[in-house]
Design a protein that fits this description.
- This protein is mainly beta.
- It contains no helices and 8 strands.
């Protein structure tokens, strides 16, 4: 949403398992920084389709790793004081 932060999906080493959501930030020099795993959001299963709200603190995504209604459900997590809150199922 801010044009300086990129949320993406990857099975790269260092993840929790399956597809994880990662985040990287672009510095003032235009170079993208090291990717960080969203550990408060990811599970050992798969997280897909991250979307960050224009407020920069609300993340929407799909997961089959949390209690759900079957398959991939939609979830929301809030970034508060630098930590992602436990995701809630959007039903």
């Amino acid at each position: 949403a801010d044009g300086r932060t990129l949320y993406f999906i990857s099975e790269r080493p260092g993840g929790l398992g399956g597809y994880d959501i990662w985040r990287t930030k672009r510095g003032e020099d235009g170079v993208w920084g090291r990717a960080e795993n969203l550990r408060g959001v990811n599970t050992r299963a798969n997280e897909l389709a991250p979307f960050i709200h224009v407020n920069g603190t609300t993340l929407f995504f799909s997961s089959d790793g949390y209690a759900n209604y079957g398959g991939y459900d939609l979830f929301r997590s809030e970034l508060k004081s630098g930590r992602w809150q436990t995701p809630t199922n959007l039903g």
